[in-house]
Amino acid sequence: MKVLHITAHLGGGVGKVLSRLVEFSAKRQDGVQHTVAILEPPEKRQFVDHVRRHGGRVEVGADPEQLRRYAESADIVQLEWWHHPALAELLAWGELPVMRLIVWSHVSGLHAPEIPSSFARLPHRFLLSSPCSWRSPGLAALDELDRRRVAVVFSSGGFDDMPPAPVRSGGRPPLTGYVGTLNYAKLHPDLLDYLAAVKNPAFRLLVFGDSDAAGPLLADAGARGLAGRLQLKGYVADVAAELRTLDIFAYLLNPLHYGTTENALLEAMAMGVVPVVMNNPAESCLVKHQETGLIVDGPQGFADAIERLSRDHAERLRMSVDAARDVRKRFSIENTAHQLTAHYRSVLREPKRPFDFKAVFGITPADWFLACQGEESWRFSGRPGARKMDRGPHYLYEKTKSSVFHYHHFFPADRRLASWAERLEAWR
């Protein structure tokens, strides 16, 4: 069976899950031949090399005619979707060949980028990467017949590349850390309130991530006299080695984040680091409250969780063992591969057919962007005065991540995108 994956890039969680999927197919000889077509040149080659090392084929920067040939020769085409402008352009191309199409959404759709119901209806299968996406406006509007073609497959690449979780002891004060993106689009905008609520004066949050993105967080911490609560460790190549030293994983994300499988959280749990997470929909699908971690709803709840895990060593050690055991089983690459393969074999029984996504996403780059803005569409409606403009959620101001600035960078000649970016910038 020939499966063509089309993705904007092969970084982050998508890169890990696809590269491990190729490795799994090679080792198990499951009969699936994977080709990965990447629309953007890779910034890092880690996952590209991993795919090729395990017999997968990688095509970088293919033009439309080459993509057409790859799609025509594939049994299954799997689009790795998160509303990246390069993918939007591909879908609006208008000359897609007949094919068996699976769309795997790597965003929740709970907030922009949302998943239009008309988009979810089109492919042979529309796969979600978290059950929390069922709450998104677009999917909630599907009727029973359409919902039968929608399913959930967590986009986890498993943990075969990680060492076993260490055996921890309760003989020292626990260390609390965070690994991941360091801007407020990902982190909770009131993170410092959470850290300030912890009464223990010795409490510190060890922060691992790209230091270049931490400027606003560090400035805010300094202004509030909370700089001592953060210990910035910077980017680390060997995350597992750092996770071995941590006891508690404070993963306090922005309630409006668009993530789903949250691989940083799962890797921490796989290494036995007990998570404390917000009661956001995505995290609540990954952490079992009081079994594999703690779910909190505010600063006092976070402070109570830290105090509880610091005081009760036996409880923390129990959750550590249970967290590692649970995620290594539930989110293994075997589970991911088996579920995807089941969908491949089911779709293989259906005929190839044509697709026209223009009715979903529109004609111009501005249309494509606007199609997934959901409740924030009014900011880009072109009808000034409809509502009083104010500063929007942090995710609107990302340089990339399918923001208006990302689309404007890709399509600088589109005047509507230019005006929307300028207007939003004025409210930064």
Automatic annotation (TrEMBL):
In terms of CDD domains, this protein maps to: GT4_PimA-like
Q: Which UniProt keywords apply?
A: Glycosyltransferase, Transferase
Q: Annotated Gene Ontology MF terms? A: glycosyltransferase activity
| Entry's EC annotation | 2.4.-.-
Name of the molecule in the record:
Glycosyltransferase family 4 protein
Traced from the root, the source organism's taxonomic lineage reads: Bacteria, Pseudomonadati, Pseudomonadota, Gammaproteobacteria, Methylococcales
